[in-house]
């Protein structure tokens, strides 16, 4: 398909409201659990994207796109433009069930890809051709379950920055974490992301080395 990815993403972004409306119709017609909604909605999000892109002339047959065969495959949806457009699905609930009650949260703590994988993804697709579709929803103990927003933007717009002024991540596995709901994206462009990615890898490595040094010292002293 000899179409530039930018044209497709502009059209897709203009259809955010249409996708939101479709997802809320799906939510109203089915009995979703708050525990599984984040993954269960992906099938319907895929249906909405295919319908929208077909209406826009970006999909003419099944050869024009590819859907992820399993949860560990990247991306969730690939549009065969030139070059290809990689689209990942992310979802976040504004509520969490903690200590037997529902509470409002600032962050959904999604897995946004591991530190060590991002350079490979950028090499394959080009950093400006990787987008997230972030679905924010409101599920709690009430019957008023609904999708609040559908936002389509470059992947780095959704990433958080921690107190160390590097990308927000989980230390045990290096999984990146999102920004808080409703705030202005702290990562503004691809170059800033690349710079922060290198700094974050170094920052995490130093913390791990320091932690392991203390463990080695502790056990070395005990063995004397």
In words, what does this structure look like?
This protein has one domain (5-223): ECO RV Endonuclease, Chain A (3-Layer(aba) Sandwich). By secondary structure, the protein is an alpha+beta fold. The protein starts with a helix and ends with a helix. The model has no long low-confidence stretch (mean pLDDT 93). The protein is globular and about 70 Å long. It has helices spanning 5-13, 16-29, 37-55, 118-125, 190-223; strands spanning 65-67, 77-79, 85-93, 95-98, 101-104, 130-138, 146-154, 169-170, 175-176. A 5-stranded mixed β-sheet has the order 1-2-3-6-7. The chain has a two-stranded antiparallel ribbon with strand order 4-5. The chain has a two-stranded antiparallel ribbon with strand order 8-9.
What distinguishing features does this structure have?
ECO RV Endonuclease, Chain A; 9 strands; alpha+beta; 224 residues; single chain; five-stranded mixed beta sheet
- The number of E-state strands comes to 9
Compute the number of helices: 5
CATH architecture: 3-Layer(aba) Sandwich
Strand order of the largest sheet: 1-2-3-6-7
Structural class: alpha+beta
**What kind of oligomer do you see?**
single chain
Helix content: 25-40%
Uncertain stretches: none
The main β sheet shows up as: 5 strands, mixed
Q: What's the overall geometry?
A: globular
Spell out the helices and strands N to C: HHHEEEEEHEEEEH
CATH topology, what is it called? ECO RV Endonuclease, Chain A
**What Rg is obtained from the alpha carbons, in whole angstroms?**
20 Å
